Amino acid sequence: MQSVNGEESLELGVDFAVNLLNPLASKKSGDDPIFFWFSRYISARDAGRDAVNGTLGSLLDNSGNLMLNEIVIDSLRKQKGHDMAGYAPLRGINEFRELAIDLALGEYRKDIPASTLSIATPGGCGALYAAANNFADPGSKVLLRDLHWAPYQTILAENQLTSTSYPLWGSGLELQLALEELCQNQKRILSWINDPAHNPTGLTLTSQEREQTLNAFIDSANKNPNIGHTLLIDSAYHLYSEEPYSWARTISKLRDWPTNLLILFAISCSKSHTIYGMRTGAIVCLHPDQKFLQKLDEVILHTGRGTWSAAPRLPQVALAQIHAQYEDEWCDEKDTLKSILKARRKAFNEELDKVSLKALPNSDGYFAFIQCQNPEEVCESCAAEDVYLVPLKSGVRIGICAIPSDKMARVANALSNALR
């Protein structure tokens, strides 16, 4: 038999794939663009070049090391035995589940005109998966803003869903029209909105914009009583915003809550507690009918059991203890990290002004965003100057969370050169 060269092996692999992979799996391809560009930064750094990393959504110090909330790290290290290595209950540690509701609603929890439920998930991504798996019909469309975290599409695809969108900067009318169109074609509406401290732009909605958004869902639910409406607030970065419980404040004003409207929070402890890889989060559910929430408890428990089993026990125990005993100390550490982000954002925007560039309006969180027609070319040009950023569909994401303030001039100049 003739030996198989590289090209023939590739063809043989594809033939095997047709037989081994189901049709949905066969359509999966590609690398995550964020980690692809991060790997290019790593290669440049390891080659000894003075490279700037603006790729990952991780808060790094000026030497490129992960910044940690030491109160959290100390609590993790103090755990022993079963709390370090044992399983958590499938729903999560009770104290952590209560904490998750507090993290979502803050001081407005007592004013929310609904019952609440939370279940621990492996990060905010687990909450997003649970929502996609249970609150939209396979083959239907999930409503997003047109600028959003790219892995949303991966999560939707894993659940046989696609998306439709309305403009990030659109009027309330555009959201209303999007809801009307979906209601004409679907039995259930699921929408995700990442706010405050939006990824990838750093945008936070105003109080008026939040009320406008919530009212659009309320109006649509009232006009279409036989269509379920689920609004998920992705709160991945909310504790680094100026008003972390802004959505809870808006929801607390709601007086006539349609029973066909469910509000969810996807809680992530990755950024707020600097435990990115420990995959700790929760899905928090708000609805006026307690019996319905009891059913949701069973539904989401079933989803978790069939995917991630149970979220990790160690960080749940540690975080519950921190917020019961060391809340002020944790908050002080978090505020220090927040001040670093604020200083870096200020430096970035000032350097952009010097080269006559403008990012989209940004005020909170980890990122900024510059719109352009050719994001891949722009990022390649920046990479030629050893500045590594992330090209997205309609522009370039700048991870200011990872870039020291004194490197912002290099970033701005590289962008200016690329966008000439």
Q: What would your notes on this structure say?
A:
- The chain is of the alpha/beta class and 420 residues long.
- It has two domains: 29-58 and 330-418, Alpha-Beta Complex (Aspartate Aminotransferase, domain 1); 80-325, 3-Layer(aba) Sandwich (Aspartate Aminotransferase, domain 2).
- It contains 16 helices and twelve strands.
- Helix 7 (123-134) packs across helix 12 (290-305).
- The longest helix is centred in the C-terminal third of the chain and has 28 residues, at 327-354.
- The relative contact order is 0.16.
Output the keywords.
single chain; 420 residues; alpha/beta; Aspartate Aminotransferase, domain 1; Aspartate Aminotransferase, domain 2; 2 domains; five-stranded mixed β-sheet; globular; disordered N terminus
Give the spatial strand order of the biggest sheet: 2-8-7-6-5
| Largest β sheet strand count, sense and barrel closure | 5 strands, mixed
- How many structural units, i.e. domains? 2
Helix content: 40-55%
- The value of Rg in angstroms is 22 Å
Q: Characterize the overall form.
A: globular
Question: What is the CATH top level name of the largest domain?
Answer: Alpha Beta
CATH architecture of the largest domain: 3-Layer(aba) Sandwich
Structural class: alpha/beta
Please, what is the CATH homologous superfamily of the largest domain? Type I PLP-dependent aspartate aminotransferase-like (Major domain)
SSE pattern, N- to C-terminal: HHHEHHHEHEHEHEHEHEEHHHEHEEEH
Give the mean pLDDT: 95
Distance between the termini: 57 Å
